[in-house]
Write the structure tokens for this entry.
Amino acid sequence: MERSPAAEAAEAAARRSYGKLVAFLAARTRDVAAAEDALSEAFAAALADWPRNGVPRTPEAWLLTVARRRQIDAVRSRLHAEAASEQLVLLQDLEEPDDDAGIPDERLRLLFACTHPAIDDGVRAPLMLQVVLGFDAATIASAFLVAPSAMAQRLVRAKAKIRDAGIPFEVPPRSAWAERLDAVLAAIYAAYAEGWNDAGADPARRNLAAEAIWLGRMVVELLPDEPEALGLLALMLYAQARLHARRDGAGEYIALGEQDVALWDGALIAEAEALLLRASRHGQPGRYQLEAAVQSAHSVRRHGRPPDHAAILQLYEALANLTGSPVAALNRAVATAEVHGPRAALAAIDALAGEPRLQDYQPYWAARAHVLALCGRRDEAASAYQRAIGLERDDAVRRFLQRRAERDAGPAPHP
Amino acid sequence: MEYLLLIHSETNSNAEAMPEAARTQMLGAYRAYTEAIQQSGVLKSSNRLRPAASGTVVRVRNGKTEVHNGPFIETREELGGYYLIDVPNLDAAMSWAARCPGAAYGTMEVRPIWPMGEY
């Protein structure tokens, strides 16, 4: 469909400034839902007005002025005179910006509000995607594998919580930094991981990974001296650099160690390396820097050198000690195989067998199968592969695991 | 809560019409999935259904029994099988539905069980 320049200008403004405008409108009233409603009406008004009168010189200021008028009307019609007056004062006190540069960037405050400890942590990433990037509930629901009605309800509840519980739109003080910034980064990484897991087929999800990187860049731009923010961006860029090497022409999955390094994006890797170096100068290692460093150790394959497995093992060791996460412990066990041999790795994996969070976790069973096969225990490897195959969602990864099972453990056992 | 995961797949994509290698892969994937869901402890029962064309339709109208061969309704997609599972909530049910090979070949429908005696 042919779209008019005005429609394109409105869409471009929406993409660029949605979060900024929501943040600015919501920061005073703490009513994110009302800010979104007002803003969507302003975008609709722009689509009606701009084709006739031309795109204004300062589209953001134009949208903001209209949205604020709508917000004031909504407050008047919704609240009793007394309750309304407080809100109206807040809204009318907003200075009328006369150009786009006059609108302060309060997206960081919005990010901190969306990832506040009072907000259920499962909804933080979805909430952030909606209010900062303007994703609709149905798209977010698909990405996070949640029913659309349930996702919409959770988002509505979270916004009501921000409004009613008095969650501040503020960048928290330094003392609360560690936990609060971590929540922001965790939500961005959750969005990235959802997008990355399904990079195979679904373009909406691939888009989600790119949007998470955009948020990561924004946080780095707003907080240039936070080593973990730098580390997270580096980590996402290393992973993104391998996007086109993860599948072959027929859509089959290719394991990291077998990827064609010529298909890795050298520019993204170089950018990631520079970010990681910048982060390390602060001398404050953290989860994301360590994970990014693992990626860096793998990326030397680009220069024809094998990955430094001893360094990878050390990094996973540090990561497992730092986070206490069973997934980090699993990665450490897998890295053990390359350095100390499969028997040591199997002992480490056996030690995780009672961990409930790994019971339905595909990579646990795939790693176990791989290490059992290296130990020559083919029958046990075959049944661990079966379990991994049964837990996988992606058909291409499933076929990959089936090929591995065939190669390492002979024909699958018949029940 | 109990959920029925219904596997809807295209009538012409049933196992008989597939090339040998793809069929082996799909059946292997189903076997692995069934074992994994069993070992996870959430599976109550599961069955695969023969093609809808092998079905018979029975109804009684005005005291008269009518019997027809073939599917209840001719559709592009048909019910190919089901898994009945007991999990804490819809999110868990959806996560098992997404892992079912039927999600990659056809469509999974997740239906909560309505317990007898509940209105």
User: Anything to note?
Assistant: Strands of chain B lie at 2-10, 43-48, 56-61, 64-69, 77-86, 107-112.
